[in-house]
TrEMBL record, chains A, B:
One of its GO terms (molecular function) is CoA-transferase activity. The keyword Transferase applies. This is CoA transferase. SUPFAM superfamilies: CoA-transferase family III (CaiB/BaiF) (SSF89796). Gene3D superfamilies: Crotonobetainyl-coa:carnitine coa-transferase, domain 1, formyl-coa transferase, domain 3. InterPro entries: CoA-transferase_III_domain (IPR050483), CoA-Trfase_fam_III (IPR003673), CoA-Trfase_III_dom3_sf (IPR044855), CoA-Trfase_III_dom_1_sf (IPR023606). Pfam families: CoA_transf_3. The keyword Transferase applies. Keywords: Transferase.
Length: 392, 392
């Protein structure tokens, strides 16, 4: 048994935030029915120009696929029948669209009063911006996270991953689990409202502390720490590495045994931690002059040998070939019905009794139509009729 | 009743990843006992140089404070008594330290066979790197996320927030909830192993899809989208804004009604979406020439009036003054026993029946020592004795 064995999830989400959330529910044992719009399905099926593409398959494993035309009454009827037996319903339409389609909380609650209903949107279901469409990049701009990422005095840069999409995914996920725990105890369902902007914003705790306590606005500063130096990325002969000489003892070890510049310890620019922060531009310059003479591998060995926190700045390809990451099964393989074997990212949490499991690949569009409708007691004739009417 | 009312959590974590996780457990009703080391407490109490500082108070609300000297047998005895009545134990020591202190899973399981025990570490509890200390910045370098963030051909830059710390926090959180659900159903506890590196790495799904399917390595490109242009940040007269003209129709609207440069539509450099991606440097230059004539506010109005996705790039101060963010109660206030009223970030999930609640401020160091020990049936004389022996 997995933790969510027996949990039934009706998933009307697409692209990344919702699908990532329901993927984890599926990884942990839930029965997830992914409902895709007729005729084109999840927009992600089209990224890159072919139907069953890699992006889609990465975040839709462990789900069954149902394709339904929600603009037709008979299509909605399928959803209502599904909802009667479900625990969780999740959607990431622009606010208002679920109501237009007849699959909003007020409507579905009539079909299942114990339903847990989760909405994911750019800005949330209330407030002056709630009708705006919101994508990950706009959320990065709204939350201020983009403005604190980048080079000092440089242009703003985005976080390299879809930060707010994944933040919304896991925020929706843990709220659904909380609501399920409450339902197990009380028998009651409820409505959950998750936004991309707030999900990422909630993680800016250090930055909020600085703003609220001292009025300091977090600004970009490359890879540098705001209060410690040297604690940042440095260029070497063949790339960049991270060095964190976080206190006076480590700084002196660094001067003596890593760069072999004992004179820096008594250099008036670098005497105290605060001096080094004030003169970090010069310090960076001097360190990179020395670091340019050897490769990253050699500097990391020297740093490790004297116990100074350090690490590589992997390219993404290096990250996924790293022996630690591979030993932790962060790259797994599964069979896809069309593509053959495909690689996927593994599971980030290791549970001793109830590990996440790859039970099935992502569904083809409408792959489980017949199976799901039969479970809902549609007859073969009715199913044929639904197909003829372009409902499924 | 809140979802986690009745859940007892013994929290031996410090700094950010663990405390953020247990803060959310507390926000949702759990009884969290934060155990801090004798004599100095959570390292975060010292950031900025004074004991009860803002960073600490931001992520430790809704917890009780117990201070214990874990290097002494009598200190460990307190933990064992706490664990007997607890559901969850969580720690973020470097792997191996919990065992040295006598609070590892094998030991605590003997005191409570149903315990859910969660460890958070930099690289995980297994594998060739497991003994290394890992901080957020090293995790950003390891996972490859740093290498895909920044300007094209620029230096790597870090994500502006402690991405891997918060990733580990919410990954630990949802696994603890999963284990609790399993415990509610089966009566069994288990061990959970969470790493900073993997928690963030698990979110690189689009980047992994590109690597696995096409061998493409995600690289930094400022704020630009890899497959669409113009879809990025642009400089205006007084700052930067985001524009997402994601298809041909939006591009033509942009040319005609926003920048009023209809000739760009037929410019051979910008005919198709692919042309615009190929010539994005020139396109950015031309657009910024026009955008430099007016303020961000005016450009955003024009873009919105024709329905082109767009948004501001807020400074962090602007983000926390934004009317949408304030209307969603993302800035809340609570009373701290020493500091008076203090602002905090609000709750990112809105649950209709069981909302998160601010029940108490962060504890002072050892604030609930007496209360907690009395509940464990220590007598007043024993408590006095423990204080004399510097155990609490």
């Amino acid at each position: 048994m997995q933790p969510l064995t027996g949990l039934k999830v009706i998933d009307l989400t697409q692209v990344l935030s919702g699908p990532y959330c329901t993927m984890v529910l599926g990884d942990m044992g839930a029965e997830v029915i992914k409902v895709e719009k007729f005729p084109s399905g999840d927009d992600t099926r089209r990224i890159g120009g072919f139907e069953d593409n890699y992006n889609f398959n990465m975040v839709n494993r462990n789900k069954k696929g149902l394709q339904v035309n929600l603009t037709m009454e008979k299509g909605r009827e399928i959803i209502y029948r599904l909802v009667e037996k479900a625990d969780v319903f999740i959607e990431n339409f622009r606010p208002g669209v679920a109501k237009k389609l007849g699959v909003d909380y007020e409507t579905l609650k009539k079909h299942n009063s114990q339903l847990i209903y989760c909405s994911i949107s750019g800005y949330g279901q209330t407030g002056p911006y709630c009708q705006k469409g919101g994508y990950d990049i706009m959320a990065q701009g709204m939350s201020g996270i983009m403005s604190m990422t980048g080079e000092t005095d440089g242009r703003p840069v985005k976080v390299g991953i879809a930060l707010h999409d994944t933040a919304a995914a896991v925020t929706a996920l843990y709220h659904i689990l909380l609501a399920y725990i409450y339902k197990l105890k009380s028998g009651e369902g409820q409505y959950i409202d998750i936004s991309l902007v707030e999900s990422g914003l909630a993680w800016t705790v250090w930055e909020a502390a600085s703003l609220f306590s001292k009025g300091e606005i977090a600004e970009p500063n490359g890879t540098r720490h705001r209060m410690i130096a040297p604690y940042q990325g440095f260029r070497t002969k063949n790339g960049y590495i991270l060095v964190g000489a976080a206190n006076q003892k480590l700084w002196e070890l660094f001067c003596k045994h890593v760069v072999e510049k004992e004179e820096w310890i008594t250099d008036p620019r670098f005497i105290t931690g605060n001096d080094r922060v004030q003169n970090v531009n010069e310090l960076e310059h001097l360190i990179e002059d020395v670091f340019s003479e050897e490769t990253s591998e050699i500097w990391l060995q020297k740093l490790e040998s004297v116990g100074i926190p350090c690490g590589p700045i992997h390219t993404y390809a290096e990250a996924l070939q790293n022996k630690q990451i591979l030993s932790r099964e962060m790259v797994i393989e599964g069979k896809h019905p069309r593509g053959g074997m495909m690689k996927m990212l593994g599971f980030p949490g290791k549970m001793s009794k109830t590990p996440a499991q790859l039970r099935s690949p992502a569904p083809l569009l409408g792959q489980h139509n017949d199976e799901i409708l039969k479970e809902l007691h549609y007859s073969e004739a009715e199913i044929r009729q639904l197909k003829e009417e372009s409902i499924i």
